[in-house]
Amino acid sequence: MPWDRFLEDILIGQMEAVHLVVGHDFCFGYKGLGTAPLLKERCGQLGIGCDIIPEVEMDGITVSSTHIRSLVAQGNVERAAQFLGYRYFISGYTRRGRGIGHRELFATANIPLPDGLLSPARGVYATRVMVDGRLYNAVTNVGINPTVGETGEVVIESHIFDFDSELYGKYLRVFFYRFLRSERKFTDVTALREQISRDIAASRECLVAFPAETDLF
Fold first, then answer.
1. Can you tell me the distance from the alpha carbon of 114 to that of 158, in angstroms, rounded to the nearest whole number?
2. Which domain range does residue 15 map to?
């Protein structure tokens, strides 16, 4: 649909828009021919308001969803938080896993990666998990569990510190603070358990530098 027809028939005609706000590089309509300057000009002719948000830079880099997605995909969640203005997070309802962590390793709260959501780089992160409105320090693995029999599905597994309550079916929000290491396959469960112990210590040490009360949600 041509951009001007979409503006007049849909936005104004059907949705009764009276003021539009777009970014400086916004484009829409057939082949993306409707640019921000053209939109502003046409809105003026039609008697409705239009604001164009100028480019925003941080350290010489344009703040954009493309750049933020790239940072998250690389595991650079600290830098992504600076561009977002809040911690990158993943939310979802916990589900029962295979019980391996509870029996042989460390109990974890597992949520599947939501469909269509960008996955952070596979690996272990220092995190905080919000349960019933309260934040708890945690360590989180994003991956497919190569040591204990991978399923191919990316799962967010969080071991919550100093927490011993039922979590199945709970809605959690996992905030990512720092990438600690890449996911890898260990020789056996004992080696994995020893590494997780080191990961827990690393996450505890890391989170000291991030007072929870200063976080932006």
1. 15
2. 3-55
